[in-house]
Design goal:
21% helix; binds adenosine monophosphate; 114 residues; binds zinc ion; globular; HIT family, subunit A; alpha+beta; five-stranded antiparallel sheet
């Protein structure tokens, strides 16, 4: 996707603070961190949001979640805990239309929505 910010980040056309990469996944620090640890975990394949996922992407979703657990360990937040958020669509406040999971940690997160 030519105009997609996260595709450009994955290709290195827009700078990012990378924390993890494998064949399927790229992860980098959020530019406006909402917690001491705030990492965006994105598939290298352009999928705009969860609505666009198909059964063919089931392996990929597993890869993303395996990456999240590796990153949590790598950043030393696995023991104390972390929150994983996906915003899908307008009501959830999704602003970048390339599927991504927020990994938040490093503080007590307070009130839960769910
Ligand atoms: P969402 O609101 O769930 O679509 O999340 C998009 C996230 O992307 C927000 O938390 C932004 O702060 C973050 N973001 C936007 N542009 C960049 C960028 N160039 N580098 C890193 N994070 C970004
Ligand atoms: Zn994209």
């Amino acid at each position: 996707m030519e105009d997609c910010l996260f595709c450009k980040i994955i290709k290195g056309e827009v700078p990012s603070n990378k924390v993890y990469e494998d064949d399927y996944v790229y992860a980098f620090k959020d530019i406006e961190p909402a917690a001491p640890v705030h990492v965006l975990v994105v598939p290298k394949k352009h999928i705009s949001c969860l609505n666009e996922m198909t059964e063919d992407d089931e392996l990929l979703i597993g890869k993303i979640h395996t990456a999240i657990t590796k990153i949590a360990k790598q950043l030393g937040v696995d023991e104390k805990g972390y929150r994983v958020i996906n915003n899908c669509g307008k009501d959830a406040g999704q602003t970048v239309m390339h599927l991504h999971f927020h990994l938040l940690a490093g503080m007590e997160m307070g009130e839960k929505i769910v």
